[in-house]
Amino acid sequence: MAATWRLGCDPRVLRCVLGFSGRRGTGVLTGAAGWSVGRGAGWRWLHSTQWLQADPIKILMPSLSPTMEEGNIVKWLKKEGEAVSAGDALCEIETDKAVVTLDASDDGILAKIVIEEGSKNIRLGSLIGLLVEEGQDWKHVEIPKDIGPPSPASKPSVPQPSPEPQIPTPVKVGYTPGKPQLRLSPAARNILEKHTLDASQGTATGPRGIFTKEDALKLVQLKQMGKITESRPAPTPPTPPTAPLPTQAMARPSHPRPMIPPVSTPGQPNVVGTFTEIPASNIRRVIAKRLTESKSTIPHAYMTVDCDLGAVLKVRQNLVRDDIKVSVNDFIIKAAAVTLKQMPDVNVSWDGEGPKQLPFIDISVAVATDRGLMTPVIKDAAAKGVREIADSVKALSKKARDGKLLPEEYQGGSFSISNLGMFGIDEFTSVINPPQACILSVGRFQPVLRLTRDEEGNASLQQHQLIKVTMSSDSRAVDDELATRFLESFKANLENPVRLI
C-alpha cells in the first residue's frame, strides 16, 4: 500500500530527521497516516528524494590564452560515470594558439558530457560538462535550466552535401547559341545600355576584338539616323535550375570570353563558375586577424645586411666533431640575444603611448605547423649557450608541431626571428608580431666570390658564405638610425662566433 508523506513544519521534527538534535535519542517522523518512522529510515528517505540532491559542478569553456574568444573540443579524455580527481585531464581543447589539456579542479564523477568531442566554435563560458560528488546518482543528473543548449555553431560539423551549382543569369545581354558575344569596354557597355542597343549590330575595332567606346558612339549615330532600331530582347520565363550533366559542366562556350563574367557560387570542385570553401581553424583566423592589424597599424621599416657565415660554419664543424649538434639558426638566435643585451633600446615593445623597455630578453622563433605559424619563446636567450639554445629550439619546435605548447611557452617574447633559409629562400621580409617592435628575417647562405686584400695590400678572389638578414622594425619605437646600429652590431657578433659560445 502506497502512502503520501508530508513533512510537518515543527522545527523539532526537522532537527530530529536531519540528525541535528542535541540529544542522543532516536528521532521520530510522524506521517499523515499516523505511522512512525525511525530516524535512520527517515534520513534514507530524505536523501533519496530529488530535491535534496546537490547541484552538479559545472565545467565551462575556459579562457586558455589572452586572445582566445572560442575553442574547439578535440577529444574527451574521461567518459561519463568515470571517477575524476583534481588535476586529472578532462579533455583536449584547441585554442587560437595550440591544443591545451583542460584539468579538473574538483574531485567527483563525470556525470554528463554536454558538448561532444569534435565540436567547434564554442564560446567562452559555455557549459561543456557536469561533475557530481561521489555517491550521488550521476545517471539522472539534469542540465541546469539557466544554461541553454549549445549554439548551432558549437555542434560537431557534419559534412553536408554540396549544393548544386547555379547557372548565373545574364544581367543585360543573353547568349544565343551560334551568335558570338563581344567583349565590351566599360564605357561602351554604359552607352549601349543607355540607348538600348546591341553590340552585335556594330563592328568591334578595338585590340583583341574589344568593342570600344567609339564603336558604341557609331551605333548611336546610326540609330539617330534611323538606320538601326533599338534592341529589346524578349523576356523569357524563369526556369528552375537543373543539375548540369557532366559533359555540360566541362563544356566550353564557342565564343572566346563572355561579355559579363559568371558569378561564382559554392558547389562541386572543378565545376565551371563555382568554388570550394576551405574551413579555417581558430589558430589561422587569429593569425590572419593579428597580421592584418599589425600591417595596417604599425609603420614597418625594412633594412637588409649581408653577413659572412664562414667563421660560424667552421665553429659548427668543430662542435659536430665533439658530437655537439647545433644549427646556424642557433648561432643567429644567440647573436640577436647578445646584441639586444648590448643595445637595450631595441629590446622594447609599443604599449600604445610610447616604447617600453623590457627587462628580459626572450626570443620568439617562428615555427611552421599544419595549424599555422607558431612562435615558441626561448626564455632568457642571452644567458644561454648555443648548445642550450639548440636543445630548447628542438623541444619547443616538436611541441609546436604536435600542438602541445603550453600558454607560457608561446606567450610574450621581446624579439622575433623567422628563418626560411632551409626552404631555399634568399631574402624576404616579415610582419611584426605586436606588441614587439622588431622581427629578423633570415634567408639561406650561399657562396659568393669577393675581391679581398690581405695586410700587404695584395688582392685575391675568395669565396664567402653570405646570408641576407632583413629586420622589420616599428618606426615608432626603433627609428632608422637605431635599427642601422643594431644590424651593424648583430653582423659583428655573428661573424665572431667565439664570443657566442
From the structure above, extract its key features.
single chain, 4-stranded antiparallel beta sheet, alpha+beta, 25 strands, 11 helices, 7-stranded mixed beta sheet, disordered N terminus, flat
Give structural notes.
The termini are far apart. The protein has helices spanning 11-18, 39-48, 186-194, 213-224, 246-249, 282-297, 310-321, 328-342, 386-402, 407-410, 480-494, and strands at residues 28-30, 36-38, 57-60, 70-76, 83-84, 89-94, 99-103, 108-113, 122-123, 127-132, 183-184, 210-211, 265-266, 274-275, 300-308, 348-350, 355-357, 363-365, 367-369, 372-374, 377-378, 415-419, 438-442, 446-453, 459-474. Strands 15, 18, 21, 22, 23, 24 and 25 form a 7-stranded mixed beta sheet that branches. With 501 residues, the protein is of the alpha+beta class. Strand 16 (348-350) and strand 17 form a beta hairpin. The protein contains 11 helices and 25 strands.
